[in-house]
Design goal:
The complex is a heterodimer of chains A (218) and B (218). Chain A contains eleven helices and four strands, in the order E-H-E-H-E-E-H-H-H-H-H-H-H-H-H. With 218 residues, chain A is an alpha+beta fold. Chain A has two domains: 73 residues, Glutaredoxin (3-Layer(aba) Sandwich), CATH 3.40.30; 129 residues, Glutathione S-transferase Yfyf (Class Pi), Chain A, domain 2, CATH 1.20.1050. A four-stranded mixed beta sheet of chain A has the order 2-1-3-4, with helices on one face. In chain A, strand 3 and strand 4 form a beta hairpin. The longest helix of chain A has 22 residues. Chain A starts with a strand and ends with a helix. Chain B has 218 residues and is α+β, with helices and mostly antiparallel strands. Helix content of chain B is 59%, strand content 8%. Chain B has eleven helices and four strands. In chain B, strands 2-1-3-4 form a four-stranded mixed beta sheet, covered by helices on one side. In chain B, a hairpin with a 2-residue loop joins strand 3 and strand 4. The longest helix of chain B has 26 residues. The chains are: A alpha+beta (218), B alpha+beta (218). Chain B: Its EC number is 2.5.1.18.
Chain lengths: 218, 218
């Protein structure tokens, strides 16, 4: 039976990008379906009734939700010869810890949505502190796991899609204080899986600008 | 070299309880070290510099932080005996999804005991909703994964030790609202690993009353 892999997605979502990168790293053919989040499809509501959010991976009819759960599922299902998670339990725990860290602590949206200049500066500072911690973890390695592109890289690189938008809209250069992360981001962007999965930065800018205007109008 | 396993912990923490249960399920001997969170030990600050929080597992000198990362680490390191995660990738993804759901909703419980009046009523309604969603996922199974005690059970059961306090605080009965869930909890409590790892509910209640006074005084 031919394998059916569908990804319910929304192109600006960094969470969706994680799933796309992982699928492409593994060379999996998938049917990419764009959702209109203001008018969610019956399929989305049926496959993610709990959160009603993208991304959702549907593999032979069975749904997997939550981006990091999806990435681990992809890693465990396809391409054992190119694993995203390391094999050593302590290194795996470390990778999971840092992916969890970025989800808990990084919120670039708060910079854009900040209602006052003061709140914006505070949000920027908090994000910078967290990015510095990530940079400390990267150190002088090519990727977070060492020589090979892996789980933490997949989890973090999607924020690079917002680089241009943040710099232009909020005067926030996310990599300015983190030169090693800037170099790492460039390195990741050279991978086909990443270049294909991250949208055009100008498109992201247009999207974020429209959303900011929408917020201001309310 | 004898394996050194240390757990930096704080007795009322449901996150600490998860790790205690997992270690005990695996029959791992460990040195349980109670932290005073108002005066964190140098060891804690050294082993978890990022979050400075318990629980932290220190295995042969190497730290692992974040309770669900720790439970997976324990499952992978002391693999043979009573696996907590299923072997099938789809079932694993499902288990991870539901443990993540528990983590996303934890703050609701906190709001129930911390707030008053209308805010508390609203928090209570939301909290009951979440418990009902979990109860729906459990269905008529003995445990979340089926016949065997596993990852989702470990993730959720610690919060049972807080039920009494929440009920007293917001004047409701969780057993009335979610009888299957409470039956599941009592089933889990019959396991030695769980009974040993959860503190007495009245002790928890007194602790939360004291904490509430402290927080309100601030």
């Amino acid at each position: 039976m031919a394998e059916e892999v569908i990804l319910l997605d929304f192109w600006p979502s960094p969470f969706g990008m994680r799933a796309k990168i992982a699928l492409r790293e593994k060379g999996v053919d998938f049917d990419l379906r764009e959702e209109d989040l203001s008018n969610k499809s019956p399929l989305l509501l049926q496959t993610n009734p709990v959160h009603k959010k993208i991304p959702v991976l549907i593999h032979n009819g069975k749904p997997v939700c939550e981006s990091l759960v999806i990435v681990q599922y992809i890693d465990e299902t396809w391409g054992p010869e190119s694993p995203l998670l390391p094999s050593d339990p302590h290194e795996r725990a470390r990778a999971r810890f840092w992916a969890d860290f970025m989800d808990k602590k990084i919120s670039l949206g708060r910079v854009v949505r900040a209602p006052t200049e003061e709140a914006r500066e505070a949000a920027k500072e908090e994000n910078i502190q967290c990015l510095k911690m990530l940079e400390g973890e990267l150190g002088d390695k090519a990727y977070f796991g060492g020589e090979r592109f892996g789980y933490v890289d997949v989890s973090l690189i999607p924020i690079h899609s917002r680089f241009y938008a943040l710099e232009t809209l909020a005067n926030f250069n996310i990599w300015e204080e983190c030169p090693k992360l800037a170099a790492w981001a460039k390195r990741c962007m050279q991978r086909e899986s990443v270049a294909k999965s991250l949208p055009d930065p100008h498109k992201v800018y247009d999207y974020m600008l429209a959303r900011t205007k929408k917020l201001q109008v309310q | 070299m004898a394996e050194e396993v240390m757990l930096l912990d704080f007795w009322p923490s449901p996150f600490g309880m998860r790790v205690r249960i997992a270690l005990r399920e695996k029959g791992v001997d460990f040195d349980l070290r109670e932290e005073d969170l108002s005066n964190k030990s140098p060891l804690l600050l050294e082993m978890n510099p990022v979050h400075k929080q318990i629980p932290v597992l220190v295995h042969s000198g190497k730290p692992v932080s974040e309770s669900l990362v720790m439970v997976q680490y324990i499952d992978e390191t002391w693999g043979g005996r009573s696996p907590l995660l299923p072997s099938d990738p789809y079932e694993r993804a499902r288990a991870r999804f539901w443990a993540d759901y528990v983590d996303k909703k934890v703050r609701l419980g906190r709001m129930v005991w911390l707030s008053t009046g209308e805010a508390q009523e609203a928090a209570k309604e939301e909290y009951i909703e979440c418990l009902k969603v979990l109860e729906g996922e459990l269905g008529d199974k003995a445990y979340f994964g089926g016949e065997r005690f596993g990852y989702v059970d470990v993730s959720l059961i610690p919060f049972y030790s807080w039920f009494y306090s929440l009920e007293e605080s917001a004047n409701f009965s969780i057993a009335e609202e979610c009888p299957k869930l409470v039956a599941w909890a009592e089933r889990c409590m019959q396991r030695e690993s769980v009974a040993k790892s959860l503190p007495d509910q009245y002790k928890v209640h007194n602790f939360l009353l004291e904490l509430k006074k402290k927080l309100q005084a601030q």
